[in-house]
Structure formats: C-alpha cells, structure tokens
Design brief:
Helix content: 10-25%
Strand order of the largest sheet: 1-2-3-4-5
Strand content: 25-35%
Order of helices and strands: EEHEHEEHEEE
Number of strands: 8
Shape: globular
Structural class: alpha/beta
Number of helices: 3
C-alpha cells in the first residue's frame, strides 16, 4: 500500500491512471482523502488481483473505458466483468499509441486478436506488437 497513484494525460487525448500495488481495503480507507478523476484507461491495482480490486465507488467516479489487468495467476484475478478489459496474461506485452482523441492498442501475442469493444481502424502492426483495436475518446 505504499504506491503512488499516477495520472497521465494528453491535451485532446487520453487520461490514464495507475494505482500500483494498492489493496482494496486500503483504497476504501482513503476514499475521503483522494481526488479521483474520470479516466479512459486504468491499470488495475495489485496487477488486477482480487485483493486489489478497485472499490465500486471509485469505478463509478473514474468510469474507465478500458481496464488493463496485469499478470498474476488466473484464480487470483478480478476480471471486472462489467468493464472492457485487456488481460496481460493473454495479451502479453501491451503497447498503446496515444494520439488526438484515440489510443491504438497492440499486443505482443499475435493470437490475441481484435477486441470487439475497440474500433478497427485498420492500423498496421508495429515492431513487437499486433494491432488489437483503437479506443475512440
């Protein structure tokens, strides 16, 4: 629970939040002490483990369009069933190309494929990454 909360944002572009290794009980205890903003992309705390699930009150404020779930044993993960997710266990390395009002996603797993909740803007694959779709902001 000694992790920074990092916000990355681009003018006319994406806002992303990283929550490090925070655990759910700690996040609930600091709810009144943290200013949360809306974000397009969230990197799930604690690599997406159930013990680090974002509290529902936080999710409502943040309203993420995509949640990135890190690497951990599948039985330990919370898959955020009501949200669009990219799971690093299967996507492997994830690259995001951030532009004006859009983010192009790439996966190092050539079998990960296009995500149905992302737009297919027919982007070329990049070195080390296969196109899986574009988030329109």
């Amino acid at each position: 629970n000694i992790s920074p909360v990092i916000k990355y944002s681009l003018e006319d572009g994406v806002t992303a939040l990283w929550f490090g290794d925070l655990e759910e009980s700690f996040m609930e205890s600091i709810t009144d002490s943290i200013e949360l903003c809306a974000a397009d992309i969230v990197f799930a705390p604690h690599h997406g483990r159930k013990s680090g699930k974002l509290p529902s009150t936080w999710l409502k404020k943040i309203n993420p369009k995509v949640i990135i779930i890190g690497e951990a044993a599948s039985e330990l993960l919370d898959y955020y069933k009501d949200y669009n997710t990219i799971t690093q266990n299967t996507a492997k390395d994830i690259t995001m190309e951030c532009g004006v009002n859009e983010v192009h996603f790439y996966s190092s797993n050539n079998n990960y494929g296009l995500r149905s909740y992302l737009k297919n803007k027919y982007k070329s694959d990049i070195d080390g990454g296969y196109y899986i779709g574009t988030l329109i902001l």
